[in-house]
Please model this.
Amino acid sequence: MIKSGKGFKDYAVEGFRIREAICPVGVEMAKVLIIVGSKNDLELTKDSKEIFDRIGIDYEVKIASSHRNPERLRKIVENSDASVFIGGAGLAAHLPGAIASLTEKPVIGIPISAALLGLDSLFSIVQMPKGVPVACVGINRFDNAAILAAEIIGIEDEKVRDKIKELREELRMESEGESSFKKVGFKTKG
Model:
């Protein structure tokens, strides 16, 4: 969760709070680092934030362009203790691949619909060369990227796995309309 507190400095960019780590030894770092290429992409990260907040996974959001400021991106990735990286990118969509080239940790790419309905970004992210894989979710699907990141973390964390099961059950009920039926007093049968 994005919080002010020991080891972190918060600042706002157009209504979004961004947390920069200034962590001394002994302060736990975020398990997931979400990186987007520009402040224009911040709005899309809300879906990831909602999932991480529901599951209880700590995360950070940073802005770093792989084209405009590759040195900043390199420093962010190399200095991160995150377990999983998420990179959201539109157009040429090199950000997730650039992240993957700088770490051996899992990277999830999210194609952002900026042109060509996001297909250009999708093709860019899924066509990574051998040895530099990037997992790719659907266009603008920051929610699925967060769930996939949680599943990766859940391999080693039973509490996270349990929260994912709860989330999936809630989503199943929503998709089948069970919660809507119960709200208006209808009974449902399997």
